[in-house]
Each structure stands twice: as structure tokens, then as C-alpha cells.
Amino acid sequence: MISSQVKPPQTKAALFGVRLRTLRKQRGWSQKELAERVYVTQSRIAQLERGYGARPSAELTHALETVLEADGQLAELWPYVYDGSPRWSRRFFDLAAKAVAIREYVSHTVPGLLQTEAYARAVLGVGLEHPDLLHERVSLRLARQARLEKPDAPKLCLILDQAVLLHTVGGEDAMREQLLALRAACDRHSLRVLPFGSREHAMLGGSVVILTMSDGTEVVYSEGADHGRLLEDPALVAAYTGAFEQLHARSYGEARSARLITEAAARFTRTRSRRRAVTRTQSRQRAGRHVRRRPGA
């Protein structure tokens, strides 16, 4: 005998589709009628209701919410349906959440686990058109940092190329805030700076993360600007681990690295002070010219 009980949706996309279909039927509209109201094709609505195909954009979700008077039923699911993480990084994030030790080399930006909100927003916002998606990606990144405050926090060992300290990401104020946060992290984690003048090395031009799991196994995640790959082959993992250890030995010690970060933050502080002084001087000069040009003066 076949059970008449309806199975619950298995994914967030399927649940989104069920809610969309229910709301549409409550209004007495066909898929075509709903599609016309939000300026998409009928097949697009059909895809969404079935939970497959391209995920709904923030704009489309907002339009559906408005015309269906959904009261947030669709909007609350959207961040989970429209995954803010690239597909090739999802398995890495799952493993990183369970790792007992994380070793990472970065060549261009502060590691995500130590980014401030303003810095993360600047990094993740490059080339991104949808504000809602940016907010989601930033929220996910900050949420992952929470594990560093828990009793089972992984052991963190980081190597930063010295150029990371000089790139102005998000503006001078955001960069100063980030560097101060990075300096504070030096007191809790192992952090070293790879100096300018270091010769070519195996990790040049990218970033590499080595994850150690509770059973002792290790995996490597190698990332570029628009790609990433997870390596689990023991030979490849061993090669990257050896390269990381070489960079660790060539980097400044932890105490000197902390001083370099402090000095970098101070440079951004002085730059901000000079900029404000120039602004004040220009304001006074404009005010003086205005007074001299008053009629009858």
C-alpha cells in the first residue's frame, strides 16, 4: 500500500518552491499570471516551484514577496537558497569547520578568519552587483570566525606576505581598523610576516590553507582570485606542507612580525591625520576667500 503522506522538502530550494506555490495558489493565480506580475517567464516560476535551475536573485525574491504579500516567508529562505559561497569552496568550508589545526599562507589579503567587517565587505564586494548577496557573504564570513572563540578552536598558524600590510583595502580607516585587529590576533595565534625580498617559492601568487583533521589526516586548499581546488592526495599534501614549512622558516619571527603590523597601523593613522589636517586647512582657506569677497567688505 502506497502511503498518502506527503514527504517534506529535502532542500532549502525545494522548501522555497513549496512556499512559492502555496502563496501563488492562495492568490488564485496561475504560474503565467504570477510570472507576468514579476516580469519573468512562466518557465522561470515553474523552475522555482520545483526547486531546480537557476536560483532566485535578490530582486526577484523581493518582487515575489511584494506581489504575493508573503510577509518574509520567501525572504527568510533566500540566503540559504542563493548560496553566497562559490561551489568549489563548499567542501573546504565543511572541513575547515571541523579542523583541529589550520595553517595558511596568504599573498594579497588578510585571511578570512581574521578579517574585520569593513575589510571583508571591501574584499567580497569586488565585482558583486547585488547588495543583498554581499551582505550574505559578509555574514557567512563573520559567522565562521565565531569558532575561534570556542573551547574547540583550531590551532591557527598564519603567514602573511608583507604586501598584505600595505594594500589599502576598503579605505584608510578600514585598513587601520583591520591592522589593529590583526595585531591583537598576534597575542592569540601564531602569525608571521614573509618579508619583501623573499625569493620565488611554491606558493607565489596565491593562497594556501592546510587543514589538519582530528584523525591526523591533512588536506590542502589552494585558491586564486576566481578558482579553488581541494587536494587530498597524500603526495600533493606533503609537497604543500613542505613548502609551507620552508616559508615559515624564511618569515620574520612572531615578535618582529607583530611590530611590523603595529608600524603599518601607525602609518595609516598618520596618513589619516594628515588628510584631516589638509581638509581643515582647505576649509579655512575657502572660508577666508568667502569673507574677502563679501559685497561691501
Layout of helices and strands, plus pairs?
Elements: H1 12-27, H2 31-38, H3 42-50, H4 58-68, H5 78-81, H6 90-96, E1 101-106, H7 117-124, H8 131-145, E2 155-161, H9 172-185, E3 190-194, E4 207-212, E5 218-223, E6 228-231, H10 234-250, H11 254-292
Parallel strand pairs: 1-2, 2-3
Antiparallel strand pairs: 1-4, 4-5, 5-6
Helix pairs in contact: 1-3, 2-3, 7-8, 9-11
In the CATH hierarchy, what is the architecture of the largest domain at level 2?
Answer: 2-Layer Sandwich
Strand content range: 5-15%
| Class of secondary structure makeup | alpha/beta
> What's the CATH C level of the largest domain?
Alpha Beta
Mean pLDDT, all residues: 83
Largest sheet: 6 strands, mixed
Overall domain count: 2
Tally the helices: what do you get?
Answer: 11
Task: Record the strand order, biggest sheet.
Answer: 3-2-1-4-5-6
Shape: globular
The unreliable regions are 1-6
What's the total number of strands?
Answer: 6
* CA(first)-CA(last) distance: 100 Å
Order of helices and strands: HHHHHHEHHEHEEEEHH
**What is the radius of gyration computed over CA atoms, rounded to a whole number of angstroms?**
26 Å
CATH topology of the largest domain, what is it called?
Answer: Endonuclease, Chain A
Helix content: 40-55%
